[in-house]
Batch of 2 targets.
Target 1
Amino acid sequence: MPKPPYLGRALLSLFILLPLLLQVFAIVALLATSLVAAVLNSNSSDGMFIAVGTPFAAGFLFLCFRAGRNLIRKQFALDEPTEAKTGFLDKALFVTRYLPVLLAFAYTLTISLLALLQPVPSDGAIFGPASGVIFIAHFFSALVAGMIQVFGVPSIWPVVIPPLCIYAAYGFGLGQGFRELRAPRTASSALIGTALLIALAVGAMIWRADFMMRGILRGGSEAWYAERTFTDRYHPFQADNELVKVAKPTLTISSDAPRLDGATAAYPIYAAAVQAIYPNLANETRKLVRHSTTPEAYDRLIKGETDLIFVAQPSNAQRAAAEAAGHPLQLTPIAREAFVFFVHQDNPVDGLTSDQIRAIYTKKITNWKAVGGRDEKILPFQRPEGSGSQTALELKVMRGEPLPTPPREEFARGMGGVIQQVASYQNSREAIGYSFRTFATTMNLEDNIKLLRIDGVPPDRESIRADAYPYTVDVYAATAGTTNPHVPELIAWFLSPQGQQLIDETGYVSIPHNQ
């Protein structure tokens, strides 16, 4: 197979020059979006970026098309073509003519497939490692790939699609150049075969990406967006937030305010406290208040990056990490809560025993029929090790009995992901998940779940207060060697009548006065 005389220049454009030009267009589009949003005083950044970015994208693809067309024009029409060059057009097959584009497609699709076929990380990072591999393999598309990683977009396609679009537009440009030169047409069977191979490769990527997203963000960007916005209604000092208001706080902190962090489910508690107790520090809340996952909160506390966190009980590994760092965890219960199990509202099962729960999660019971339900396979979702709800499952429910590693389709990274899976998992009604009662009933955005009775006891405020519900747990204010002078008085405020009233109004259950 003869080598196209333009192979080197075409590959240079496809792998370096056009990707660099893409970065310029992306930066200009972002700056233009910011400018238009500022002029219009608009907060709709997503819609604005689509409106502004679409013409930029169209213009960039046209430049790719023109680059391919002009390459052929210059190579065979303007360059005083030699007999070897003109003869190439007469005898070159489809694959030979489009070799640069086909090599680029083969490279990107192969790299992407290999990246997606990596073992899925146990922490549920989804596409982090895969996008990192593609980032390295497409260094000159670094800005686009880097933005995807920074913002944690749970999709591989924003990383893969830009280079594929470059190749496609450039290839159409090559074709247009050949037509303008009236080059002999090649067999359509080669075009069809190539298109089928590319379609198969893209189909394999779609299948693998879909598999990786099961149990994490099934449902695409809407599910991802919902996962990230569970706490949007609870940011302190934000207009129209849903935080409990404290009329006349008995504690005010105006300087050296403790840095706070915690689990997503506990955010409404300490965010409401911040709004009441840090009244003069509204402009500093981004530095002082975060809402992480439980593992992140414990990790930041142990490293000294925050002073006080609000979380469920720590795992054994988290306790050991604090001991190893020389800052043993100090845990103060400030509220009571129920660790709950839930199913889809159409599931006929309304309750389970503790033994049945353990049997389901150890795979000794695998069909709902065994516990009074339909003849359907049970899909028991789990969360990452170290998360608050997973620790509660291991310590409170399983009581040391080991859990089998869940298959990918039975794994969810966030508590919101668990709820969404049970509410709509592949249109199934046979999943079961777990969370904390207040998050599941107040913060979550799904209505298609119902909480199960455990050992005949419903997870309501009365059973929690009476310690009758089997999986009643504490919410802790946790410290680890902080020297902030206001931490003790802030913890004391949460234990005061005013703090306990806030806890009750938030949806949690205040602790008994004698505790």
Note: The radius of gyration is 29 Å.
Target 2
Amino acid sequence: MSTHREWHLLLGIAAIAATSGVLDVMEVDAAQYAIMARDMLASDDWTKLHYHGKDYLDKPPLHFWLAALSFKLFGVHNWSYKLPSIAFAFLAILSTYRFTLLHHGRESAWRAALMLGTSAAFLVMTNDVRCDTILTGSVITAIWLGSAWMRQRRTSQLVGASVAVAAGMLAKGPIGLMAPALALGADLIIRRDWSILRRPMLLVAPLIVGALLTPMCLGLYEQHGLRGLHFYFWEQSFGRITGENRWKDDSTALFFTHEVLWQLLPWTLIVLLGLWHSLRSVIRRAPRPEYASIGGATLVFIALSMSRFKLPHYLYVIAPLFAVIGAQAWSAQVLPRWLRWSQSTLLTMLAAAAVLLCAWCFRHPAWPVPLLAFVLIAWRMRALGRREPDQALFIGSMHVWIVAGLTLNVLVYPAVLRYQVNATAGRWAAERRLEQGAFHGLQAHGPALDLYAGYPVPWLSDAGEARDAIREGGVIYTDAEHYRELLDSGLVPRAVDSIPSYSVQMLSLDFVLPDSRAAVVEHRYLLQY
């Protein structure tokens, strides 16, 4: 690929991230984390974590530190909350490029970096921002610099890898150490380069990691005692495998086998092919430039599958390694005819889905724009494909995903997020400058309500408490059941605003299809007294 084309594609990825940044912060986790960062800035207490004034023991502090710092520099906005995490997402692209360049050459390096940036996982991790985006950037950086040190022995590489490991641990806990250790350990064991373990310089790594973790550990001890340290270093991560952690669900060990398929889009087929070739080469002991990508992707995937509590975003941490594996498969050989046909069919389905979403499911007057863009891409792919079919398919895949991502962020997600009722209600209160004592939630609450209202919205349990809280000019935010309860109690509002409500993080086909949406959408009410 030409340098001009590569930077053009990176600009497309940056446009997707920029449009993700301005979208509303999603419930539940991201909105809660934004509140905690805002409260951290207000209290100026950076060593302890609180949520609504109560001690918080779940996630490490790096995500909150960076979001609070961003709020301090730029103010409290959707984009300023997401900015540090988006920066780490682009660090993941850079580190994926540098790791692949180190072992597989420039062409594969660009492919891997661009495949990561044009993946469903990258789109979602820059939209619904949690701790995992920072973790992903930190882990692949640690793998790149750690692998570079194992080959080149430069002190700066070991120091950088140690800092990246510490950042990963400060973002999500011991997984920030275990993921790079599994990847680099697999590479070391298969290559049998035991001399690395005898290098005195290696002792510097735990000292750097320990020093960087010290402020967090002191804060945990001061706030929670030894219980805080035990939770962080053992229960939070390893406890999910042993069963000690309170978070458990009924998912099976196969949960991630279907989640990974959509996260790798539009590269699912080529990554699966790459996994097959890579695993076969390891089994046959065929020489490879590195084993960190296949070792890390496989071992971390197995470790995550053993957890008794699983969520789709846990897989983001190995998305860069999957991109490296996919890039190797694409660069290693001429693509078979069946794969070209399958990839073209997949791209057609993705383009059709994007157009249907904005033209029919969530009707937007600008829907002809992506349709025209997809037609132009198809025409360009056909023209280029006569000379370079594999190159045309690769470039076309990225262009299709960039247009699809922009379509989702600009035309579809804004329509979907109108159903995130707590954000809508909180923003409604903020626009009317309702003070904390004038706005209450009656059995209706959520972190986005507090985030966009600008303060913790007081909670009411029943109509009796509402009667005591209601004053002239006050507003009660509630659901249909408790609205009827207020009316039965004689508390009739002077005006009512109705807001459609749906859990936008858990999209279902019934919600996406316009004909069945009304059956699954509920309503909440802003009752003005």
Note: The first helix runs from residue 3 to 21.
